[in-house]
Amino acid sequence: MSLRSLPRPVVILGLAGILPQAACVASGVVDPSARWAANAAGCFYAATILSFLGGIWWADALRADDRRWWPYLLAVAPSLIAWGALLPWFQGLAWPGPSLILLGVSLLLSPAADRTLIRSGAAPGVPGWLRLRLILSAGLGLCTLALALLPPPTLAS
Fold this sequence. Notes:
Blueprint: H1 8-16, H2 19-30, H3 35-63, H4 70-86, H5 97-120, H6 129-149
């Protein structure tokens, strides 16, 4: 399916959603002293987008008047994963690498949930949507994993 079947704002704004994470990666590569801020911003951005996806899945199931439990449980999972990824920060974890890996992998796997919801009738099968989701999730997921791979900044003495 072609992306041309989707409304133009969906494609343009969707693709633009990769830019903040790409900027975090670029910042961390160009300026090692900015890695902490780049990783923190990227971690919170990935968690926000993952939660956003769950909201889409919830709304799709509700719009389909789905009475089964599993679509809503699936829709809640991204927010719980995002919360779990951010929780170590509030307990004093010094580096977000593991959280970024969890979020990056979750983003890469998220189109499988879209496909499952569409096939079950819990989400509409909009032409071109899964293709766009694959592109967006690959872009954001890979940028998030790239952030995880940046070495921690060295502390100046």
